């Protein structure tokens, strides 16, 4: 007696992406037995009873024979309940109770005891991660029909009953996936000269992907200036395979868009929330900010360890995650922007009276360690403001200005010996010769960005001078008292 056999595809969402898996079903004569093999967790084992009942309630015959389900590849742990549907389909196909359509087709969904096919938004990350795989048709719970799905061919099932006619139905074809690229817009704002100067610094940060920090009095417009950047960020041109913006199991799921992320976690965020961690691995704000900006408002209110944990990804563009015995490097790509009050009361250096002692202020600012500051390129302060908000900025114009510079930066050619020339200047000048190598590199890189902003293919002395101002701005902290 040859055992009956069927193989059904499904998807599994793992912390580092979606994987296609195969559900192999073998049925042979023997005592009634139902086993699931292939690194199935206890959660998947529970599905045995659920699948059996769901099949019976839907009027199918559950074979009273030895049923072996083999989940392949075996080394990946399977935690999710959404394999129910694929297992049920495999049993029905092996026992020739249904016929599934030709061609690769993946089944994804859980089952209710009444035979309903279950699943909702929690399945969206599976689909978006798998969307480059255009050849497969997906069979999904009906409830996903109205969700934002990637383009492809789909069957939607409300109930196991629907499997009886799946062979005669035609998959729905979704052609264009709507991209949600709405963002905060500001259209027009009026800035005073101090705010404008600060904003210029932030624009350099965006153009050259320089990390920046802004110390300023409450009400000086720190948050507003940063927020204005959100809608100016250029769209992503291509999809970067390292872009992990959609890594979210539960919680806030975000569909990948061309829009660059601007993440601004609250200062009560935990280290795991910011950097990522846990089992199964949950992506942190760093991963969600991939290709965009991670903005920490009230940066000194964050726990110290959090700022320190950003040091490695800031500089090396990767994050090392240690899980059980496994060490994994995750690529990161974000521009860090911080803003904070200059003292506990916030009024230091402003028109209002500050009641903090110098000792207290120093203690407060010590939260930003020297090692951390060393990785920040642009340091700015914004204490003075006037009511003469005479500079008008228009969003669409700023977008155009920034985009022109991004394109210029990509296509310009610079003199080969430029870097070494700037290096020599920095090595010889009193203000800069004692700076660390890292700082000097930052100055060279920022000077290049400023030159790009100026649409100049040569880095001029004025650009270097301006870059030095930003890069040694942090010394202000040490000059207190
Ligand atoms: Zn104060």
From TrEMBL:
This chain belongs to the protein called ATP-binding protein
Q: Which UniProt keywords apply?
A: ATP-binding, Nucleotide-binding
Q: Name one GO molecular function term.
A: ATP binding
Pfam families hit by this protein: ChlI, Mg_chelatase, Mg_chelatase_C
| Organism this protein belongs to | Leptospira soteropolitanensis
Give every Magnesium chelatase ChlI-like catalytic domain span. Answer: 200-382
* Highest taxon in the source lineage: Bacteria
Q: Which SUPFAM superfamilies match?
A: P-loop containing nucleoside triphosphate hydrolases, Ribosomal protein S5 domain 2-like
Classification via InterPro entries: CHLI-like, Mg_chelat-rel_C, Mg_chelatse_chII-like_cat_dom, P-loop_NTPase, Ribosomal_Su5_D2-typ_SF
Does the record carry Methyltransferase as a key word? no
Q: Where is the Mg chelatase-related protein C-terminal domain?
A: 420-470
Q: Which residues form a coiled coil?
A: none
The UniProt record lists the keyword ATP-binding: yes
Gene3D superfamilies listed in its UniProt record: P-loop containing nucleotide triphosphate hydrolases (3.40.50.300)
């Amino acid at each position: 007696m040859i055992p009956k056999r069927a193989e059904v595809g499904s998807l599994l969402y793992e912390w580092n992406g979606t994987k296609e898996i195969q559900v192999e079903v073998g049925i042979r004569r023997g005592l009634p037995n139902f086993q699931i093999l292939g690194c199935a967790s206890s959660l998947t084992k529970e599905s045995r009873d659920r699948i059996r009942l769901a099949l019976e309630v839907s009027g199918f015959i559950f074979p009273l024979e030895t049923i072996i389900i083999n989940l392949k590849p075996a080394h990946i742990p399977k935690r999710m309940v959404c394999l129910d549907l694929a297992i049920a389909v495999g049993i029905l196909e092996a026992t020739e109770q249904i016929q599934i359509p030709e061609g690769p087709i993946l089944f994804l969904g859980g089952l209710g005891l009444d035979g309903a096919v279950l699943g909702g938004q929690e399945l969206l990350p599976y689909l978006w991660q798998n969307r480059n795989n255009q050849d497969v048709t997906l069979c999904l719970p009906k409830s996903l029909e109205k969700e934002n799905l990637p383009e492809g061919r789909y069957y939607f099932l409300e109930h196991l009953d629907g499997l009886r006619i799946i062979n005669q139905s035609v998959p729905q074809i979704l052609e264009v996936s709507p991209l949600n690229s709405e963002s905060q817009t500001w259209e027009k704002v009026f800035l005073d000269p101090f705010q404008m100067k600060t904003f210029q610094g932030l624009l350099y940060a965006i153009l050259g992907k320089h990390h920046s920090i802004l110390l300023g009095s409450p009400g000086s417009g720190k948050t507003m200036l940063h927020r204005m950047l959100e809608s100016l960020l250029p769209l992503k041109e291509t999809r970067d395979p390292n872009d992990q913006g959609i890594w979210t199991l539960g919680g806030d799921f975000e569909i990948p868009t061309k829009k660059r992320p601007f993440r601004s976690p609250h200062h009560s965020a935990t280290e795991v929330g910011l950097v990522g961690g846990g089992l199964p691995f949950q992506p942190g704000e760093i991963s969600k900010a991939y290709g965009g900006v991670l903005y920490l408002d009230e940066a000194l209110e964050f726990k110290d360890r959090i700022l320190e944990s950003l040091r490695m990804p800031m500089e090396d563009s990767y994050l090392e995650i240690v899980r059980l015995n496994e060490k994994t490097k995750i690529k990161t790509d974000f521009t860090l922007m911080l803003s904070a009050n200059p003292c506990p009361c916030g009024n230091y250096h402003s028109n209002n009276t500050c009641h903090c002692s110098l000792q207290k202020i120093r203690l407060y600012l010590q939260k930003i360690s020297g090692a951390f500051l060393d990785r920040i390129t642009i340091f700015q302060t914004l204490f003075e403001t006037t009511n003469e908000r005479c500079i008008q900025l228009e969003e669409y114009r700023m977008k155009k200005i920034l985009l022109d510079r991004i394109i210029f930066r990509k296509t310009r050619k610079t003199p080969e010996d430029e870097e070494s020339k700037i290096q020599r200047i920095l090595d010889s000048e009193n203000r800069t010769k004692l700076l660390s190598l890292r700082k000097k590199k930052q100055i060279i890189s920022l000077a290049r960005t400023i030159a790009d902003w100026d649409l100049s293919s040569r880095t001029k002395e004025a650009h270097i001078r301006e870059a030095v101002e930003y890069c040694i701005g942090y010394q202000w902290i040490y000059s207190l008292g």
